[in-house]
Amino acid sequence: MKSSRVRFPNAEGQLLSGKIDLPEDEAPLAWALFAHCFTCGKNLKAISHISRALCREKIAVLRFDFTGLGQSEGDFSETNLSSNIADLVAAATWLEREQAAPSLLIGHSFGGSAVLQAANQLPAVRAVVTLAAPFDPEHVANLFAENKEQLSRAGEASVTLAGRQFTIREQFLRDLDEHQVEENIQHLKAALLVMHSPIDQIVGIQNAARIYQAAKHPKSYISLDDADHLLSRESDALYAGQMIASWAGRYLQLLARPGIQSSVIDNRVTVRTGAEGFFTEIFANGHPLIADEPLSYGGTNRGPTPYDYLLVSLGACTSMTLQMYARRKKWPLESAIARLTHAKIHAEDCQSCETSNGKIDRFHRELELIGALSDEQREKLLQIAERCPVHKTLHGEVVVTTSLKPHSS
């Protein structure tokens, strides 16, 4: 994915800091708005991983810091659930003006409480996701239970949360009492997905049950199994993102859009490999793919290798070409199966090769032809396999040119 920083005003005119994540060289099919957890921020690793998974399915994401947090302006001590909801509405309004209205809201922990309250104020929202969210936002008050006496006496208190000092004012607690949580969930006008870990030590699993029971259909639940509250393991965050994208596709009508239509900027294949490891994101003619290397080569083994894709290309071209020929001839070929392997061998071991020194690439292709074919038809299809376009490309003269895109500061 590619990211860019943005700033937009909240209801008080203070500038909020955000980040837009876009699918690489692709026009998004939908937009999501992400609300982070209490005192967290848009740069939490889990949010980035979830956003990456969504971008792979061509769902762009706006994530931002609530007022007084991260790089956003304002005084955190003056914020509350109501101000968070107002920030979400401001973010959605700005996004609709600059790009498109968000149709998916995602909220983590206290951010989940905020999106449940904000959803009905945003008519374009078709789907809402909560991650480890409390049913009652007053749950967050338990984080500073020992400071309640001081809050009541002095009107504010300095609390330590996640190793950082924050000032909390009594108005924060008063504001929590003003929200009709269960009633808003019951009247939610969007599909709801509740995601929670049964071993969450910060927000217990019973909160997910109460949210789910309060909501009307369509609603779904996905267990995050042994994930912690912050989804600190990359695999947990990526899983959450993949599940959200798959689930949301039904309600955002992504699945109803055949092929790639006008969503592809052009027909190039775009590939991005980050600074760590070899995990690689790919868009091929609008379709998301991944590539990687085995652990033994410094990769994470989360996808096929580049040579695997070369075999895939040759195999797919072969089986398609065989079916195309058989259909034209009206032959009873039910399935064409190609199994391929690749190896580097010494040229001297290849008696039919022109090259006599160094190593060469050897591809072995085994064909299985299923159907009531005659021996003559099978033999002809074996010959046709040699004519597939990718096979011809591998045997023909290939020219690869490389240019450097101008650097944009």
Element layout with pairings:
Blueprint: E1 2-9, E2 15-22, E3 30-35, H1 45-56, E4 59-64, H2 81-98, E5 104-108, H3 110-118, E6 127-131, H4 148-154, E7 156-161, E8 164-169, H5 170-177, H6 181-186, E9 191-196, H7 206-214, E10 219-223, H8 234-251, E11 269-273, E12 280-284, E13 287-291, H9 306-329, E14 335-346, E15 359-370, H10 375-385, H11 389-395
Parallel strand pairs: 3-4, 3-5, 5-6, 6-9, 9-10
Antiparallel strand pairs: 1-2, 2-4, 7-8, 11-12, 12-13, 14-15
Helix pairs in contact: 1-8, 2-3
Structural commentary:
The protein has 409 residues and is α/β, with parallel strands linked by helices. The protein folds into three domains: 2-251, 3-Layer(aba) Sandwich (Rossmann fold); 266-297, no CATH class; 306-395, GMP Synthetase, Chain A, domain 3. It contains eleven helices and 15 strands. It has helices at 45-56, 81-98, 110-118, 148-154, 170-177, 181-186, 206-214, 234-251, 306-329, 375-385, 389-395; strands at residues 2-9, 15-22, 30-35, 59-64, 104-108, 127-131, 156-161, 164-169, 191-196, 219-223, 269-273, 280-284, 287-291, 335-346, 359-370. It has an eight-stranded mixed beta sheet with strand order 1-2-4-3-5-6-9-10, sandwiched between helices. Strands 11-12-13 form a three-stranded antiparallel beta sheet, with no helix packed on it. Strands 7-8 form a two-stranded antiparallel sheet. Helix 1 (45-56) packs across helix 8 and helix 2 crosses helix 3. The longest helix has 24 residues, at 306-329. The chain is elongated, with a radius of gyration of 27 Å. Residues 255-265 have low confidence and may be disordered.
